[in-house]
Amino acid sequence: MHHPPGGPSKRARTLLFPLSQKTAPYIDTHTQACVRAQRKLSLKGNRLVRALILLSGGIDSAIALYLTKQETDDVYSMNMIYTQTYDSEAEASKKLAAAAQVKEHLSVYLPFFKDIETRYRPTPSSEVSSAYVPARNIVFYGVAAAYAEAIGAHEIVFGSNADDAMELPDARPEFIQLMNELIRTGTRSGREGTEMKIVNPLIHYTKVEVLRLALKLKVPLELTWSCYEDLPVPCGKCRGCRTREKAFGEVGILDPLNASSQPK
C-alpha cells in the first residue's frame, strides 16, 4: 500500500486516487471538493447521472458498482480503511474501481476504529454478528454523504445483502431509512431540496443470489477480496471466507480467487 509523503504517521489523511493517472499523486481533497461542489446534479429523463459507490473490495460492493454502471457512467467510488481492512482489501477496491473506469476513487483512513478495538476490546454479543464494528456504518455513511454532497452525487450506493441484514443492525432497511432522514435534515443538499440518498440494490438478495447476479453482470470476481486477513491467499477461516466459500459451493462453481491463488 502506498503511504502519503511523510510516511505512515500521516495515515489519518484523506487520500484521493485519481484513476486517470498511472502514478496516483496525493491531492488536496478540499480543493478537489470545492471545484466539484460547483457542479449541479442533473438527470436525463429518469436516468441517474452521478453516483458514489461504497466499494469495499468484496463481491457485494463490486456488484453494486456494476449495477450502477448500467445506469450511468458518471460514477465515483470510495473505500474506508479501518480495523478490518488490510492491504489486500484496499487493493481489491482500487483494482475494481480501475476495471470499471470510475471517475475517481477515494480511500479514507479511519484509524480510530482500530484504537477502539485494541483499547476497549468490545465483548462478544449473542444477538449481533462478531463482524459488527461499533457504529461503523453511521461513520461510513456520514463520510460518504460529505463526499457525495461535494461532488453532487444523487445516490450513495452500497452492497449489503439480506443475510447481512439479519446479522447486523446497521445493515437493515430501517437503519438506512433513518440515515436518509438525517441526510435530508442535516445537509445543504437536503435544505435546498436536492435529492441525495443512500440506496442498497442488494437488500433482498441472499449471498447465493448475489453471486448468481455477479455472474450475469460479468463482475470480475478474481479482483474481489472477502478475507478479513491480510494474507497472500484467503485464510479460509474468517466469516468473509466462510460465507464466500459457501456461496460458491451452492452455486456450483470454482472461486477464481482461490484458483488463481494456488501455487504453480
Could you please describe the fold and organization of this structure?
By secondary structure, this protein is an alpha/beta fold. The longest helix has 16 residues. The two termini are 25 Å apart. The N terminus is likely disordered.
CATH superfamily (homologous) name: HUPs
Strand numbers in spatial order across the main sheet:
1-4-3-2-5-6
Q: Percent of residues in beta strands?
A: 5-15%
| Rg calc | 18 Å
Oligomer: single chain
Structural class: alpha/beta
Query: Residue ranges: pLDDT <50 for 5 or more in a row?
Result: 1-44
Largest sheet: 6 strands, mixed
- Tally of individual domains: 1
CATH topology: Rossmann fold
Number of helices: 11
Number of strands: 6
Assigned CATH class: Alpha Beta
* String of helices and strands: EHEHEHEHHEHHHEHHH
Shape: globular
- Give the overall pLDDT as a whole number: 79
